[in-house]
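ok, trying the design again with the full structure, not the truncated one.
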């Protein structure tokens, strides 16, 4: 769908008389939905850009596509709007501090280290469960955000680590003890 078609759909939805959730009620629903934690990183000319994302989804295995959402008001949005490629690191259960750092505004999120530049230039987070390097294929405006679609080009994985999960404003570790 084109951006114009999506804007028309949004306008149609806004004009309907159906009741809708308030922003607070909507946030409450998603606080109760656990999500994996990732850090999206890229090189924007001579500076590094990164942010925490719990909105990463698998879209398709063939071709390999994933997506994430980013608020249009985010300080990272201008760099993502220009990016041709980026990396997404899926954090391990021991990396809640990394998630918090990349979610903090107004700091140099890369200053503490703990990352490595790929030969192509994108930074990936050391010790992450896995990472994907991808080419941005589409940026779709949806509400006050953008849905950014990415074609996976390369990946790396770490063995013997468990993922970090965010649920109800708290980090959780998944391990053997949590298996059903």
């Amino acid at each position: 769908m084109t951006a114009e078609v999506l804007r028309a759909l949004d306008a149609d939805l806004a004009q309907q008389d159906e009741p809708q959730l308030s922003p607070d009620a909507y946030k409450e629903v998603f606080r109760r939905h656990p999500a994996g934690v990732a850090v999206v990183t890229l090189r924007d000319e001579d500076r590094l850009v990164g942010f925490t994302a719990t909105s990463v989804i698998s879209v398709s295995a063939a071709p390999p596509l994933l997506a994430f959402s980013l608020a249009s008001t985010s300080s990272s949005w201008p760099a993502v709007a220009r990016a041709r490629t980026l990396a997404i690191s899926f954090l391990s259960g021991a990396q809640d501090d990394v998630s918090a750092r990349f979610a903090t505004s107004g700091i140099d999120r890369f200053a503490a280290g703990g990352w490595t530049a790929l030969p192509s230039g994108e930074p990936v987070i050391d010790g992450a469960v896995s990472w994907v390097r991808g080419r941005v294929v589409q940026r779709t405006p949806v509400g006050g955000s953008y849905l950014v679609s990415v074609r996976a080009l390369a990946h790396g994985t770490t063995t013997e680590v468990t993922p970090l999960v965010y649920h109800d404003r708290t980090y959780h570790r998944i391990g053997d003890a949590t298996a059903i």
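Keeping the full-length input from now on. Residues 34-178 form a domain with the Pnp Oxidase; Chain A fold (CATH 2.30.110.10).
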